[in-house]
Each structure stands twice: as C-alpha cells, then as structure tokens.
Amino acid sequence: MKAVAQVRAGHAPTDRPGATPARGNLAEQVYAELKQQMHDFVLVPGDRFSEAEIGTRLGVSRTPVREALFRLRNEGLLDVESKTGWFVQPIDFARLEQLYDLRVLLEAASVARLCAQAEPAAELEALKAQWMVPAAERPADGREVGALDEQFHATLVRAAGNEEIARVHWDVTERIRIIRHLDFTRAARIDATYAEHAKILRAIFQRKPDQAQLLLRSHIEQSKAEVRKITLATLHEARARQRRA
Prior knowledge:
Blueprint: H1 2-9, H2 23-39, E1 48-49, H3 51-58, H4 62-74, E2 78-81, E3 85-88, H5 93-116, H6 122-131, H7 142-159, H8 163-180, H9 187-205, H10 209-244
Antiparallel strand pairs: 1-3, 2-3
C-alpha cells in the first residue's frame, strides 16, 4: 500500500486514478503497520487515538482503519471505549506467562518425538547448518535473528510430525511476538541463543530426550525472564521519549 509505505518512508501519499488498492488489502496493510508500531513501541500501552487520526497518519480512509483496529482488538492488543476512543492495551504479563508455559509443553513433546524417530528429520539438518556455525558466520541484526529463532522453534515442532500441535504452537508464537522479539535487541542474548540452540540440536541428534527437553525448557525460561526485563526497560524508555516529544 503506497500510503502506508510512504508514511513509513516520510513521504505524503499521492492519489492517482486506478492506483487505489482493494479495501481488503488496505485493511491488511494498516493492520500490519499498526502491529509493527506496537512491536517497536512507537505505540505504547495506554496510547489513545481515533480512527480518523490513524487514517490521516497513514493516508487511508476510515473503513480499512476500522477493520484493522477491530482485528487487533480481537487479538487483545487494542480496545475501544465509547467516549475516549481506541487505546493500546497494557501488556498482560500473567497471560504471557501462561502462553510461554504452553509453548514449553508443546515444544518439549515435539523434542521427545524427534529423539524417538528412527532417522533424523530432514529439517534438522537445515537447522544444524543455520545454528551450529562459527560466531563470524552469524547474522548480527536482531530482527533477522528473531525471525530465525521463530523458524528454529517452529521447525522443531513441525518436524515432529503432528500438524495440530504445529498449528497451536504457531498461534502461541503469534501471540507472544509482541515481546519475544525484544530478546534479540541485546548482543549477549543473540550469542546465548546460538549456543543454546546448538546444545538442543546436539541432544536431539544424540537421541537424548531427557537432556534435550531439559535444555529446551531452560532455554525458553531464560528467554522469558530476559524478555520481561527488557520489555519493562523498553516501555520506560518509550514513555520517556514521549514526554520529551
């Protein structure tokens, strides 16, 4: 969508005959843009805004904005009040703890299945090539590593062969992404992730389910603890920027 892309690039939208995308596409891109702004803490918990303000900011009509906002509301990221308009929901750490607990159960079960397979799943070889590499060959960009980390854990679950577990696991991944990606804004956490992923893979290849599950649980629990600390610090920094603006 040109309007959203140009807003992100710092340009004003242009109106050209025949250039307006379908409304559904506009709504999808407004949704993606607003969700990214929440992930980047450009929009922080407690921020309030109207549909008209978002439409003006992104250069689109209120209809696709409304569709995107209600979709984000259904995901628990936004809410709306009749007199004060839309606002970003506070981060519910208790709910996120429950989602992380569910993630551990799903991934631990998948790792046990992988260790029981007669031959290593083909997908594991690709993970080995990605994660068991010298430090000099690793990407340093946090966003890239965050995406690779999601792929690592999703691949472990998918390779175990239960499509329903994989579907539920991906839903959990979507719901924790708003804070999970912050784990890769610190160089030390990127290094730790590479080391811990390599240990998990070695245990799987060596058919050691108890060790693999223990390493996996420790890895996720450590990530969860670090993410909570980083999230609180990032929120403090974002609110301080708003006060200075």
